[in-house]
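Sequence only, no structure available. Ideas?
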Amino acid sequence: MRFSRVWLSSLVVLVALSAPACSKRGETSPAVQAEKRYPLTGEILAVDADKNVLRVKHEKIEGYMPAMTMEFLVSLGDAKLAKAGQRIRAEMVEQADGEFRLEKIWPASTAEVAKIEAAANALTQETVAMGRGAYREIGERAPQFSLFDQDGRVVESQRFRGKQVMICFIFTRCPVAKMCPAAVARFQQTQKLAREAGVTDLELISFSLDPEYDTPGILKEYTIQRGIDTSNYSFLTGPQMAIKSLLQQFGILTEMQGDLLNHTAATLLLDGTGRIIHRADGSEWDVQDFVGRMKKS
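Reply:
I predicted one. Tokens follow.
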């Protein structure tokens, strides 16, 4: 059975990865250890993009402070996405010097959250019901999803119907050049070569393997720092259970070993109906091969 061969070969790759490891999360400095973190929900009242500062009217933080309006430092990516009137949830960080900043910022409008959570629940239930048969073979349609992209927008899988789609799996903290950075670089090469070849309906998707860290703001900053053209390249993140189900259905293995995140790699090509028409396992695949399989206008 093809599922068994792919699964076993992926398992061998995962074991092999455990030696050099895919990623090591940074060591925590004494200053960072002294920081205190609190969950926060509130509304953005104003954005100072030049200073990366948000003015937020937040709700009561139990056991710490009443509801009030405060200014917070945020990352470049979060400042780029922030809009006055937007509801957010985040972690408020009290630094050792008494200053405050926000991290792990997520959109929190009722409608967006409901859509994302409903899709995550449906995807999880589908994956559980399929059991060992959850893996999507070549010729089968890819699973449906709703996730956030690097611009903080809700992106549903239906948006890509009628498009040729390439998919890979990365996370922004992966420092191993031949893994996630190489996958993104190859996608950028594919994007360029496909245009030159007359492919006008290509969409590229990189799903985050680390949604706990890879918020929309983190993904936004990642694309800015690397000069990525996101006109047809989406970086997607969302609930852990949704990502876990997608990984299971696409046959991607992950394993945490202490601070090390090991994972297998695969790149897929879907046709306009969402059907998987080609798959390359491993981190090394031929850009020209994928472009050659695409329909030209």
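The CA atoms of residues 59 and 288 lie 53 Å apart.
Hope that gets you unstuck.
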